[in-house]
Amino acid sequence: xxxxxxxxxxxxxxxxNRFLLVEEETAHGLQFNQPAGHLEENEDLxxxxxxxxxxETAWMFEPEHIISLQLWRKNLxxxxxLRVCFSGHCHSHNPKQKLDDGIVATHWLTREExxxxxxxxRSPLVLxxxxxxxxxxxxxxxxxxxxxxxxxx
Length: 153
Fold this sequence. Notes:
The protein is an alpha+beta fold and 153 residues long.
């Protein structure tokens, strides 16, 4: 068997000192997470984070920076995730859009409100990413390169 991590993306979106989070149904009950999800076939990382943010929050996301690359595994029996965490801003909210299956609501929470919900965070990466963002950690999007052959070439 070939081992490989799950590649995921996440969006850190701050507005008026609050961060956009989703509240989602999980196997462990309702939990909070950044808008996030899996990279799909024939998709680059920027397209993935824009798509996931739209599907989960009904907001258009404009990535501006990479906050960090995060390799995480909950325990030895759990899958490993390689998470690319972006920051940026959002615009053009569509309140009539149906959110992804499992998303119960979106919330704008302060860092303190997020920390107070640590027992309901999907992973420790949620608060870690907010803290990395608040510390000023930023990397240019230009470090990402995609060399994907399409069916049209």
